[in-house]
Structure formats: structure tokens, C-alpha cells
């Protein structure tokens, strides 16, 4: 991991933890995870899907899936109340669904890669935004913030500004920048996914 003062740290893909899928049909590159009493509070991961099939059951977790590469994927979901679908046709298309819903993936034309953000329902929430340069966004962290990061889906250039500190970063494709302080981020080149994960508050 490469650290730059207290503002941010860059995690290259080579540092991601390889984890087998629950259904045994592939593997995930785990970028970040937090657990409480052996339960996953949140997890951010990257995976390749080489063939269609049923997703693993992650009951109790809300899932956000982002298409990173490939020609698209169609998701069909079913629970006791309804059936619904997501058609991820473009790079950085986003789908939101319950991890406990029965989900089946159909690939449009060959293998894809995706980013998967899972958070514990009722306890943790996530905000996931596809970002294309040029673009700016603010990082606002407080005591409820668990994770703030930017996943680079191409070679990217970021400008990070916090008070009197300003730092430019070149981020390789498929690396993740962890953002540690309140700051303004300008994406000067490339595209990626901005992720904020927070503890839910009551009232």
C-alpha cells in the first residue's frame, strides 16, 4: 500500500485478497471488509463472471453491483413479493438489490468484470456513484463514516485538496484510493466508482 500523508492511501490490485465464491464457481478480489460478531458489516470487492448462473445467497446484505468491463449482463431477481430485473448494458452501469433475493445472471456476450459493494441491512448504508472525468466530488467524513474510496476503472488522475494541502495522484487501472480526510476530489482523467459507506443513524 502506498501512503501519501494523512489524506489518502492507494491500494493496488495486487494487494487485494483473493477469496473463493460461496458457490465455488469463481473467486473474488476483496478490496475492503469489516466484520462484527462474525457478520460482514460491509465488503467491497471485484470479480470476473465468465458464465451465467445463480448468484450466491447473501441474506441480510444489501448489494450494489457495478459493471466494470465486458459487453453487459442481465440480472433477474425474485423474492416472495415480486420479480424485478436489471440490464447492465454500459460500463459503470449500476444495479441495487437484496442479497437474499434469488438472482440469476445472463451474460450478453462473453465474460464481464464487476465491482460489488455489500452492506448489512438495517445497520449500514452505501452510496455508490459512477464518475467520468472531468468531475468533482466532496469527501465528508464524520464519526458514522466507515469507508470512503474511489475505484479506478482506467488509469486515472486525481487532484485531492484539503484545507491548505493539495496533492495530485496517478492511479493505475483497478487500484483503489482510500480517502481519509474531508477533502475535495477532482477527477482529471479516467473513470471510476466513488463509494461511501456509513453507519445508519436512528431518527
UniProtKB/TrEMBL annotation:
Pfam family, one: HutD
Cited Gene3D superfamilies: Jelly Rolls
Protein origin, superkingdom: Bacteria
Signal peptide: none
Record-linked InterPro entries: RmlC-like_jellyroll, RmlC_Cupin_sf, Uncharacterised_HutD/Ves
Protein name (Swiss-Prot/TrEMBL): HutD family protein
Organism the protein comes from: Vibrio diazotrophicus
Upper taxonomic lineage: Bacteria, Pseudomonadati, Pseudomonadota, Gammaproteobacteria, Vibrionales
Amino acid at each position: 500500500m502506498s501512503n501519501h500523508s494523512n489524506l489518502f492511501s492507494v491500494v493496488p490490485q495486487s494487494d487485494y485478497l483473493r477469496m473463493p465464491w460461496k458457490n465455488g464457481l469463481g473467486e473474488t478480489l476483496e478490496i475492503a471488509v469489516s466484520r462484527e460478531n462474525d457478520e460482514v458489516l460491509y465488503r467491497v470487492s471485484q470479480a470476473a463472471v465468465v458464465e451465467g448462473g445463480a448468484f450466491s445467497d447473501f441474506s441480510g446484505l444489501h448489494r450494489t453491483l457495478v459493471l466494470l468491463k465486458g459487453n453487459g449482463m442481465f440480472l433477474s431477481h425474485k423474492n416472495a413479493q415480486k420479480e424485478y430485473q436489471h440490464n447492465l448494458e454500459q460500463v459503470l452501469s449500476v444495479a441495487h438489490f437484496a442479497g437474499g433475493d434469488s438472482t440469476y445472471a445472463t451474460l450478453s456476450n462473453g465474460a464481464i468484470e464487476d465491482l460489488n459493494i455489500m452492506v448489512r441491512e438495517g445497520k449500514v448504508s452505501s452510496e455508490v456513484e459512477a464518475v467520468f472525468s472531468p468531475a468533482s466530488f466532496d469527501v465528508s467524513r464524520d464519526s458514522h463514516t466507515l469507508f470512503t474510496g474511489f475505484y479506478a476503472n482506467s488509469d486515472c488522475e486525481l487532484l485531492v485538496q484539503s484545507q491548505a494541502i493539495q496533492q495530485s495522484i496517478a492511479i493505475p487501472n483497478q487500484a483503489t484510493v482510500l480517502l481519509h480526510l474531508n477533502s475535495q476530489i477532482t477527477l482529471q482523467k479516467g473513470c471510476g466508482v466513488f463509494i461511501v459507506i456509513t453507519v445508519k443513524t436512528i431518527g
